[in-house]
Every structure is written in C-alpha cells, then in structure tokens.
Write a structure and sequence with these properties.
9 strands, 38% helix, 5 helices, elongated
Length: 205
C-alpha cells in the first residue's frame, strides 16, 4: 500500500479522483502528446512548405513538360507526407501499478520501476535554450529527455543517479502520482512553504 507523503498529512494534496490511495494497482496515469500543438514547429513547417512550393514551382515553370512527375512526387513528399508524419508522432506517458512507461517512437520505450526513483521534481525549462530542441534528446544536465511541446517537465533521478526528463502538459498530476507511488519525501522547498504557512496561521491566532 502506498503511503501518503508527510506533507500531505498536514495540507490538502491535489490528487486526482482516478487515483486510489488504498490500492496502488488502481492508480493509472495516461497522457498523449503530439507535435501538432507545437506552435514554433508548426511555423517552421509552414514556412518551409511555402519556400519549397515556390522553389519546385519555379523548376516546374522552367522545365515545363519535363520532369513534371518527379517534381510532383518531391512536392507531395516534402510538403504533405513528411510534415504529416512528424506532426503525428506521439509521446505517451503512462503509470500502471508501480511502473512508469514513456513511449516516443521510433526510440526505445522507457520502463521505470517507481521504487527505483529517489527524487522527482517539476521544472520549467526552455526546450531550445536548455534542451536543444524537441523530441528525444540526451543531455549532460537533464539526462535523457522526451518532449513534444511546452515548457513543463518532470525531472526524475533514479537510484543510480541517472536522470530522465519527461515533457508534460499536466505536471502537477504526474508529479503527484510519481511521488505517492514511489513514497518520496517532500522537497525542502515544499517544507519551507509549509513551515511558512504554518507560521502565518500561528501568528494570526
């Protein structure tokens, strides 16, 4: 049975209704993300599509009647097929039982036993400035990273000190699920916040 972190005993913790504190096997987290909501990437794809269309169109006019079939195939692949494939790549994050799984095809799936996690925290990171872009990344500071869009991440430190960084649109929910199942203690920052709130209540009384 997963125990409630100490700070949850003193304050109200936001744990989704789908999480059963009595039976860890019932705790399930599912999130699917795609590049389709990445505005920066969408802008790049649109600009690239316009430029390629202009270039291929110029070639089609210059070589009218020649190589039209090849130019059409090149346009379809570069402007329609490739962007569609990229935008439909899915990152899926799932917690079932005491296992965290993250998929990001065509890369290998992460399968992490929650009992091997010694620390987890929510971080706001710049995908370009801190991670060098989107997708699957291997960084020195944040370890292996998976993300499609947004700047919210859960950084996990494993028992062997290796890190895994997961992009998410529901950071509080994911972090809560990991901490409850991994039975992680509260961060020092959370303890400071809690102590400050307790002091203010005592002063008010």
């Amino acid at each position: 049975m997963a125990r409630t972190p100490d700070h949850c005993a003193k304050t109200e913790c936001s744990i989704p209704n789908s999480f059963s504190m009595n039976d860890p096997r019932d705790i399930t987290y599912n999130e699917t993300q795609t590049f389709a909501r990445n505005r920066f990437l969408l802008t790049i794809i649109v600009c690239e599509s316009v430029i390629l269309t202009m270039i291929l169109g110029a070639f089609a006019i210059k070589y009218a009647g020649q190589q039209q079939h090849q130019l059409t195939i090149a346009w379809v692949i570069c402007v329609l097929v490739m962007p569609t494939l990229i935008l439909n790549i899915r990152q899926r994050t799932q917690i079932a039982g005491h296992t965290l799984r993250v998929w990001f095809p065509p890369f290998p799936r992460w399968k992490i036993d929650l009992t091997t996690i010694k620390h987890a925290e929510q971080r706001k990171l710049s995908p370009i400035g801190d991670l060098g872009g989107w997708g699957y990344k291997i960084t020195r500071k944040h370890g292996h990273v998976m993300n499609t869009h947004g700047d919210q991440f859960i950084v996990i430190t494993l028992a062997n000190d290796k890190k895994r960084t997961i992009g998410t649109q529901r950071p509080e929910e994911l972090l809560t699920a990991i901490r409850v199942l991994a039975e992680l203690p509260p961060d020092e920052s959370e303890l400071s916040t809690l102590q400050g709130a307790t002091t203010r209540v005592e002063d008010a009384q």
